[in-house]
Design goal:
The structure holds two protein chains of two kinds.
Chain A (H helix, E strand, L loop, with lengths): L3 H39 L4 H15 L1 H4 L19 H10 L14 H12 L3
Chain B lengths: L4 H28 L6 H29 L8 H27 L5 H30 L3
Chain lengths: ~120, ~140
């Protein structure tokens, strides 16, 4: 059986843990709202906003292999002046290339992939 | 100046993960080797390991929130990372507080419940670490 001290400690532990998680999630929510407002203020409206968003996704997920300006890295080719269609780019991003490039289908929705493709098309 | 949160988060997470696993291993070692003189020392090492891990985890959580800009769940590997890390973080804090109060006055039942929860927390945090690594290496 648990002792009285252990039960008292368990109650304090549960309370502290709940408090820590609550504070963490409130802080996260405040940051999320703040970051959203900043992004809206920084982004131009219209197609340029889509390209800017695509560039953000590219920098976050693709740049470490393809280079931050998409001009290629040690193990991945340059994505500048590509001749493949937007549909083909979408397919490669969503499916990946076996042994060479991971799939991003889980990470990015179709709309997000379209934004990445929109950005890549500006590099032609 | 832009703060490199991705690198900072990576740097700040490994320390608490390693200390948590070390603490669980020391507790387990103190059970397996309970007849040996240093079993008590293992308990002490596990206590300090857990306490420092809990304190260090605050830095890991803060840098993680900054890295994701407050996205507390997300999709794909990020979603899995968060599904494992939030219960793991909650348990880590709870176990550290419990241990801090109880110290050496643990009953046999109390210790085994604690040990089970330590293994569970270690598993959750290790799984979160795996999916966090996948985000960087796998890209998914």
């Amino acid at each position: 059986m648990l002792t009285a001290l252990e039960i008292k400690a368990a109650k304090a532990a549960v309370l502290t843990s709940a408090l820590a998680l609550t504070v963490t999630f409130i802080a996260g929510e405040i940051y999320w709202q703040h970051a959203g407002r900043l992004e809206k203020a920084e982004q131009p409206a219209g197609p340029a906003a889509v390209v800017a968003q695509g560039r953000l996704f590219f920098v976050k997920s693709c740049a470490h292999c393809h280079g931050k300006d998409a001009d290629g890295g040690e193990d991945a080719p340059s994505l500048r002046k590509m001749t493949i269609s937007a549909a083909h780019m979408t397919l490669v991003i969503q499916s990946g290339i076996k042994g060479d490039m991971p799939s991003f289908a889980k990470k990015y929705s179709e709309a997000d992939v379209a934004k990445i493709v929109a950005y890549l098309q500006t590099l032609k | 100046m832009t703060i490199p949160w991705e690198q900072l988060h990576g740097a700040m997470t490994h320390f608490p993960i390693a200390l948590l696993l070390f603490s669980a291993a020391c507790d387990f070692g103190s059970v397996v080797l309970k007849k040996l003189a240093f079993a008590g020392e293992l308990r002490k090492a596990s206590f300090y390991g857990l306490a420092i891990s809990a304190v260090a985890s605050i830095g890991a959580v803060v840098s993680g929130i900054a890295l994701t800009k407050g996205n507390m769940w997300g999709r794909g590997d990020l979603g899995w990372h968060h599904r494992f890390i939030w219960p793991g973080f909650g348990l880590l804090v709870a176990l550290a507080v419990w241990r801090l109060i109880v110290r050496d006055q643990m009953s046999r039942t109390g210790f085994y419940v604690y040990l089970f929860l330590m293994f569970l927390t270690s598993g959750l945090v290790a799984a979160a670490g795996y999916f966090g690594g996948e985000l960087l290496i796998g890209g998914g």
